[in-house]
Automatic annotation (TrEMBL):
Organism: Mantoniella antarctica
Protein's name according to its UniProt entry: Uncharacterized protein
Region (Disordered) residue spans: 1-30
Length: 117
């Protein structure tokens, strides 16, 4: 057959065909239009992949920001709980002192002491 046509001798490719070692044995001859089409499709895949990575990066940044905000809120809540716990400890100490005082006052009233005002 004519060079470049199916069944053309592999040793003498036509001017619009190139030997591609990567596909040797399967499709030894490819036309420049075929190669150009494959390159265009490859560039399209790369562009879609780049867009997907960009979107994933934006999502990761948003998740990171949300996580930082959540951790900040949790830190503030923890600090408030620690302060409340400290204040509660002081209240409990005061209650014990008051209970002891009331108990002492009860024992005084049993002994006949009268409150003075």
């Amino acid at each position: 057959g004519a060079p470049g046509s199916p069944g053309a001798p592999v040793g003498r490719p036509g001017p619009s065909f190139v030997h591609d070692a990567a596909t040797a044995g399967r499709h030894p001859l490819r036309g420049s239009n075929q190669i150009r089409g494959e390159l265009v499709r490859g560039v399209g895949r790369l562009e879609r992949g780049t867009e997907a990575l960009t979107e994933a990066s934006h999502g990761a940044i948003q998740a990171n920001t949300a996580g930082e905000n959540l951790l900040g809120a949790l830190r503030e809540q923890r600090e408030a709980l620690v302060r409340s716990g400290s204040a509660l400890g002081g209240v409990q100490g005061g209650m014990k002192r008051n209970e002891a005082l009331v108990s002492d006052m009860n024992s005084w009233s049993r002994l006949g002491a009268k409150a003075t005002r």
